[in-house]
Q: What sequence folds into this?
């Protein structure tokens, strides 16, 4: 496995710091939108391994990043557990049957049975391993149990998380049962991604900031750590990336722990602080504000500032969250070229 990205994740010597961008295959690429429109729906694309592989590779060919992130969606997990998922135009993902009671949870399948239904994801990975250049790493991923649970309980995206948080404070036992069932599926799902050929795996906790710092370990981080440690015990050579968004206070208090390799730093967390608190334990990834991509000048300033902070340390250039759909492709290319330029100094 002679990939620069993998070596960087494992703190091995690399010629330069690699770069990749979250949500690589997305609406900012016209080539992606052409495939998406042809497939008719987002879920149709997720379920079609050949086309999912095609859009996974597009950013490598067009933008020039060092690693590809598998094209899929975090919500395929609860969908295959037995929930009724749809993507509503202009509104996003929706579940027609959100979890409200323990009986609702009991009707869902879990563990190996649920993970085995995600065959289209594993087939996509196998196709990508045949198509990707040898020096390009493939990143598999999952949503963290808490982030998945928010959709499963709320029934859709939310700005308040009031249904989830009502359960957290008034019925924590049920919330933990949901998180346990999801965690058990995710562990096997990630293992199957690795067995199919993923070089690196990442756990996204996109809605981590919804939990107050004193509760974050109990309701999210410990489950993420359990997944990471399960994978590292079985596949020590496979890097594991943790990316919880919006937990600067949790980091600052020194509460991050666990056996994993890379910590993704979101754009709201000062890179210098993350380096001070975590740099001796983990390779850091991030953390440019995605909206900087609207300006090539501001992109260059940020890339140079991050390089100055992280010079000589384990670091992977990346955005501090996903690319927005109206970012010019030329600006994304500029970000990659600037990261590679400063890394080679």
A:
């Amino acid at each position: 496995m002679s990939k620069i990205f993998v070596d960087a994740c494992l703190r091995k010597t690399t010629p330069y710091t690699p770069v990749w961008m979250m949500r690589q295959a997305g609406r900012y690429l016209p080539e992606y939108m052409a495939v998406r429109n042809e497939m008719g729906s987002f879920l149709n694309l997720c379920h079609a391994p050949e086309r999912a592989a095609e859009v996974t590779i597009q950013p490598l060919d067009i933008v020039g990043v060092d690693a590809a992130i598998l094209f899929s969606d975090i919500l395929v997990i609860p969908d295959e557990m037995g929930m009724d998922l749809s993507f509503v135009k202009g509104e996003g993902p929706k579940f027609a049957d959100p979890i409200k009671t323990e009986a609702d949870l009991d009707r869902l399948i879990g563990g190996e049975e649920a993970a085995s239904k995600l065959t289209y994801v594993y087939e996509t990975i196998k196709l990508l391993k045949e198509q990707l250049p040898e020096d390009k790493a493939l990143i598999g991923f999952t949503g963290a149990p808490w982030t998945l649970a928010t959709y499963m309980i709320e029934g859709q995206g939310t700005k308040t998380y009031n249904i989830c948080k009502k359960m957290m404070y008034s019925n924590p036992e049920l919330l933990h049962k949901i998180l346990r069932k999801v965690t058990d599926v995710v562990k096997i799902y990630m293992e199957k991604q690795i067995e199919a050929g993923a070089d690196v795996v990442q756990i996204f906790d996109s809605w981590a900031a919804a939990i107050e710092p004193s509760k974050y370990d109990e309701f999210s981080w410990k489950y993420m750590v359990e997944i990471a440690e399960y994978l590292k015990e079985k596949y020590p050579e496979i890097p594991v990336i943790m990316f919880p968004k919006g937990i600067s206070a949790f980091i600052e208090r020194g509460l991050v722990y666990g056996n994993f390799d890379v910590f993704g730093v979101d754009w709201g967390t000062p890179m210098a602080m993350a380096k001070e608190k975590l740099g001796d334990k983990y390779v850091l990834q991030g953390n440019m504000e995605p909206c900087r991509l609207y300006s090539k000048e501001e992109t260059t300033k940020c890339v140079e500032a991050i390089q100055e902070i992280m010079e000589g340390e384990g670091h992977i250039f990346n955005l501090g969250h996903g690319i927005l759909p109206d970012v010019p492709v030329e600006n994304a290319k500029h970000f990659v070229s600037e990261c590679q330029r400063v890394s080679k100094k």
About this structure: The CA atoms of residues 2 and 135 lie 7 Å apart. The longest strand covers residues 137-143.
